[in-house]
């Protein structure tokens, strides 16, 4: 955000202090984006950690009181819970309040949240495409969104000023903002995030169930490629259950494409069609180069794992 | 290797100076495991890099002369090329020479290589489970095998002393050695390496072919999980073509299991069976913890990517 622009919001209420919620709290303070941060969570253990970490000005389990004076409320709960939270707080939001979220699915969240919010409240759905495989308030850090994309899916009939302020907030904590429809978001994320998670969860499950290969062998020899899948297969189970249920159509559509292609690949292996295999394996390198070139990944070999082993440092 | 043990070999000939071959050369020198290193490659550009990097005492495209006086010859060529190399060099190996390899498939390599080697030559198949997504002599580094597993699959009728010397060599350059049959190796690697590579190549290909989502969007929003797949889908196309063709049966068998499980998962999504999804997603976390606990992966969030972005350093 340019230095001369006024801060878009003064009082931020975050509902759900997991990895993402706690990172937003840390980032909002680190970048001086709001005056007051209210952390709302129904889990007493989470609130205790929030207080110990000192990442919010107020930590409460009282949703109604917590959101009452906020001018920005961000829902950082699993997408399956967003509707219920919206319903519970809707009557207690001040006119002009902006409500946003961080859900990995947008059509279902809009359908669940928007009907509850009164006409004076502005809903601006958002999705920061960032994360790690860790969960909970201790896992967050203030630079999680730096250089990462945050997708906004403003409602067609929504308030443009509110969307601009949410954009300014995300840009202020380091993200790059892109705007698209909720429907398109759900398709894009189905292929870039949801199906990858699904097949990662799946192969880790398949490996665990084999009789001919022990779990100990799977773990020992995981450096051959398997371990790359286990990171995302260690992501939060509740969050991901909700994502798959909420984005069912797009996930099944993209999974159908994946399966068709995989069948063709299996057939090429069965019939010894080395040229088809080589052609695909060459083509896929280009996408990797694009990802590295755009700064969404390091070019270091092996993600710098070898380096990490030589001198491991913690993430702040 | 204990300090008092004699070096198991004096003259090492490496055939194929790619990522693995050049890493073995660097490691053998770094750890003082042999007196002389002979680099053999038919590619003049590779030999030029080997000479410039100074990682071998001799660099030659003459296979017969290169292996003539070696007491250890390691084939570091794609598995589909191992048989032809063995045939070409077989008559020129001194009695007592130990031949090994680094192939990701073992049954097919044994079948292709062993028949060519005379009775006085000892073949000890090996597979170091280590690598990065980069290829070529510049990509190697001396610590690639440190703390990584190297699997030996000695022939049932093979020379036990030769196998022990190959084990000592690998332990001397930092690897942990495990011995199993070639058949079991191919099953284990099918699930821990080959099928993961196959589905990574596949989803990157699927994503590239979509009409509704642009390649630019796939690249931009890859941080949601997709990028984890692109690393291994950037691996050497020729090597991997050969792996899939050479380990066809085990790969198709494991792929069949994967597909059955994926169908069940798709069905759970279609019918909204959140409990089944949550149960699997919880179970898969345990395998991840095992991999981190056994030192085959860093526990840093996001592979330390955020850290890498703050201060990127090269890999030696």
CATH superfamily of the largest domain in chain A: NAD(P)-binding Rossmann-like Domain
Rg of chain A over CA atoms, rounded to whole Å, is 21 Å
The separation of the N and C termini of chain A measures 23 Å
State the CATH topology of the largest domain in chain A.
Answer: Rossmann fold
**Helix segment count of chain A?**
13
**How would you name the oligomeric state of the polypeptide chains in this document?**
homodimer
Summarize the structure.
The structure is a homodimer of 316-residue chains. By secondary structure, the first copy, chain A, is of the alpha/beta class. Helix content of chain A is 49%, strand content 11%.
List keywords for this structure.
6-phosphogluconate dehydrogenase C-terminal fold; six-stranded parallel beta sheet; alpha/beta; 316 residues; globular; 11% strand; 2 domains; homodimer; Rossmann fold; 13 helices
Structure description:
- The structure is a homodimer of 316-residue chains.
- Chain A is 49% helix and 11% strand.
- Chain A contains 13 helices and 9 strands.
- Chain A has a 6-stranded parallel β-sheet, with helices on both faces.
- The interface between A and B is large, with 120 and 119 residues.
Topology:
The structure is a homodimer of 316-residue chains.
Chain A lengths: L10 E5 L3 H12 L5 E5 L3 H10 L4 E3 L2 H5 L4 E4 L6 H8 L8 E4 L5 H7 L8 E3 L1 E3 L20 E4 L7 H13 L3 E4 L2 H28 L5 H6 L5 H7 L4 H10 L1 H23 L3 H20 L11 H6 L6
Parallel strand pairs in A: 1-2, 1-4, 2-3, 4-5, 5-6, 8-9
Antiparallel strand pairs in A: 7-8
């Amino acid at each position: 955000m340019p230095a001369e622009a006024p801060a878009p919001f003064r009082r931020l209420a975050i509902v759900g202090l997991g990895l993402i919620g706690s990172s937003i709290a840390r980032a909002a303070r680190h970048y001086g984006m709001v005056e007051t941060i209210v952390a709302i969570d129904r889990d007493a253990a989470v609130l205790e950690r929030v207080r110990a970490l000192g990442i919010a000005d107020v930590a409460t389990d009282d949703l109604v009181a917590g959101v009452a004076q906020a001018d920005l409320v961000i829902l950082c709960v699993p997408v399956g819970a967003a509707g219920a939270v919206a319903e519970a707080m809707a009557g207690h939001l001040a006119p002009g309040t902006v409500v946003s979220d961080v859900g990995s699915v947008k059509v279902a969240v809009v359908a669940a949240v928007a009907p509850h919010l009164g006409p004076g409240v502005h809903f601006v759905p958002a999705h920061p495409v960032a994360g790690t495989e860790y969960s909970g308030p201790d896992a967050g850090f203030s630079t999680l969104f730096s250089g990462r994309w945050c997708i906004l899916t403003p409602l067609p009939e929504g308030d443009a000023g509110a969307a601009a302020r949410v954009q300014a907030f995300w840009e202020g904590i380091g993200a790059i903002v892109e705007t698209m429809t909720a429907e398109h978001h759900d398709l894009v994320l189905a292929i870039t995030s949801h199906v990858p998670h699904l097949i990662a969860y799946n192969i880790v499950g398949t490996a665990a169930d084999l009789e001919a290969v022990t779990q100990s062998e799977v773990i020992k020899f995981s450096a051959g490629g398997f371990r790359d899948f286990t990171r995302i297969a260690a992501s939060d189970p509740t969050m991901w259950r909700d994502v798959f249920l909420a984005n069912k159509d797009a996930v099944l559509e993209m999974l159908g494409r994946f399966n068709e292609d995989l069948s063709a690949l299996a057939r090429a292996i069965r019939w010894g069609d080395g040229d088809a295999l080589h052609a695909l394996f060459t083509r896929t390198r280009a996408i990797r180069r694009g990802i590295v070139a755009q700064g969404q990944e390091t070019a270091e070999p092996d993600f710098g794992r070898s380096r990490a082993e030589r001198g491991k440092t913690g993430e702040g």
